[in-house]
Amino acid sequence: PASDPKTAFEEAQQLTGILASLNDSQLRQIALLKMAGHTDQEIAELIGCSLRKVLPMNGKNSLILHFGVYS
After folding, report:
1. Residue 56: what pLDDT?
2. Contact assessment for residue 26 and residue 49, using Cβ atoms and an 8 Å cutoff
3. Rounded Cα gap, residues 58 and 71, in angstroms
4. CB 35, CB 66: distance < 8 Å
């Protein structure tokens, strides 16, 4: 997490851009649920997909790793 408001704003803008660049609406939903603190298993159950889909598996998901969405 950012320690000052300017950095927090810049990080929020970057994250918004990354989420918007995800062509798969399910990946956006996964990222948002992850940010809300849900576990991978909970997310898979909530959106009705496999656990494998929830885990960071491709380059776009790895961008989200930078922001701590996946732990």
Report:
1. 66
2. yes
3. 15
4. no
Q: Give the DSSP letter of residue 69.
A: S
Report DSSP letters for the chain, one per residue: --SSHHHHHHHHHHHHHHHHH-S-HHHHHHHHHHHTT--HHHHHHHHT--HHHHS--SHHHHHHHTTTS--
What is the Cα–Cα distance from 36 to 48, expressed in whole angstroms? Answer: 17
Instruction: Give me the pLDDT at residue 71, please.
Output: 40
Residues of the chain with pLDDT under 50: 57-58, 70-71
How far apart are alpha carbons 25 and 28 in whole angstroms?
5
